[in-house]
TrEMBL record:
It comes from Neocucurbitaria cava. Residues 46-63 have a biased composition (Polar residues). Residues 46-71 are annotated as: Disordered. One of its GO terms (cellular component) is mitochondrial intermembrane space. Belongs to the MIX23 family. It holds the Pfam family MIX23. This is Caffeine-induced death protein Cid2. InterPro entries: MIX23 (IPR019171), MIX23_fungal (IPR016805).
Amino acid sequence: MSQPSSRPHLTPQFCFNQTALRDFLRISRGTIDDSITQNLNALLTPAQQGFDPSSTSTRQLSSPDHGRSIPPQQCQEFKERVLFPSWSVRSDVLDYCAGVATSPDPDDPDSVIRQIEDSKARERVVDERLDPYSGRYFPTEARTESLAMLMRQERAVEKIIRNRTWSLLGERCGMNNESSEAAFDRWRATQKR
């Protein structure tokens, strides 16, 4: 069985290092959600029914394991030990970094440069008749704004990935129509006790 994602050391520097943040999310999603079919197939006991020699006499176009139901106990164990803990770690990272993105950033190395650029733009005399493009000014984005945009994008990606994973889990495990959010929230509530 796969292992849940390990929790990174959460600091503002981790969040502002967008490469490290994206790599963590990509690797966590890749090991659990993107390979959900392989993870679910690993729950099936191989050769449970024994070898049937007649199975080699005809060509089978579909995998015999495809669509095969997984015992409910194994599905539940997978959700509680691997899937939900990984989702929890990613949710904690996204929540923490979203908080960092909405907090003031006194350590922003580019804030002085932005202030200088803003004051130069205010002092500039623009005659748009001579140069219609001279009035354009594109201020550089603060790193908190960039992080906030990244968090919105990553939350949208996370929602899509969770829905796909939950759909495949529902097909293979024969689960009820409970949403992924409701099941995850219920699991998190049991973990906080």
